[in-house]
Amino acid sequence: MAQAESKSTASTGFQFKSTRAALNELILLESDPALLAPQLAAHAARVPMLFNGMPVVLNLQQLPQLPSAAEVQALIELCREQTLMPVGIKAEPGSATELCAQLQMADFSQQRRVAEPAPVPATEPSPRQPAAEAETAPEPAPARAAKIVTTPVRSGQQIYARGCDLVILSSVGAGAEVMADGHIHVYGPLRGRAMAGVSGDENTRIFCQSLEAELISIAGYFKTSEDLQTEHWQKPAQALLSGSRLDTVAL
């Protein structure tokens, strides 16, 4: 019996595993629940399969001032009423620490941002070396690999290109899902869901020969088929971010 107990206590009852699960931000431009409630309800009615149980981070960075804990709690309850699942808060770094602690929410304010290159002061070339040698050409960036799929992606299939582009030399069927940390190229009709830049790269794009998607997303910003049925619908098109707006343009 003692031996069995020793073996049981020595084993670990859990494991940690990193994941690339998509986590969308709900960027709030207003903090009044009465104003937001009908707008969220209307959006949820258009894409119920997307809203149902979707985990979100409440992004408060666009609000004029940080709401109180009671105000944020009201926003959390509003999201839950619309079947969204708030898991954290994003505000200016350092300003939401106490707020998150009070509400028992994760603090996403310290998410890593792409650093801006430091300005290089204008200096004269060193007299010990010629000016031509003082200016060294930057090394070219390494080419990004790509995951290539040669067969149609059918309904129910999910393909993820981790750390690279995704190239599909066929079609993406309705009900299928394709994701990539880099760009997505579809050399055929795109009828399912396509999510580029899932690790946060806002410079990624989606290219397809016929835009018929259920949903497209770049770095968490998304549009559904209702929003996509413009002059580019069922035509060669590309999707890209213009600031925080997801645009489609002719290919």
Strand order in space, largest sheet = 5-7-9-11-14-15
Q: Which class of secondary structure composition applies to the elements?
A: alpha/beta
Proportion in β-strands: 25-35%
Secondary-structure element sequence?
A: HEHHEHEHEHEEEEEEEEEHEE
Question: What's the count of strands?
Answer: 15
Main sheet properties: 6 strands, mixed
Estimate the global geometry from the Cα principal axes.
globular
How many angstroms separate the termini?
Answer: 71 Å
Q: Tell me the radius of gyration.
A: 23 Å
On the 0 to 100 scale, the average pLDDT is 81
Task: Give the proportion of residues in helices.
Answer: 10-25%
User: Count the helices. How many?
Assistant: 7
Describe it.
By secondary structure, the protein is α/β, with parallel strands linked by helices. 22% of the residues lie in helices and 28% in strands. Strands 5-7-9-11-14-15 form a 6-stranded mixed beta sheet, with no helix packed on it. Strand 14 and strand 15 form a beta hairpin. Helix 2 packs parallel to helix 4. It is globular and about 50 Å long. Residues 112-135 have low confidence and may be disordered.
Q: Which features does this protein show?
A:
5-stranded mixed beta sheet; 251 residues; 6-stranded mixed beta sheet; alpha/beta; 15 strands; globular; single chain; 22% helix
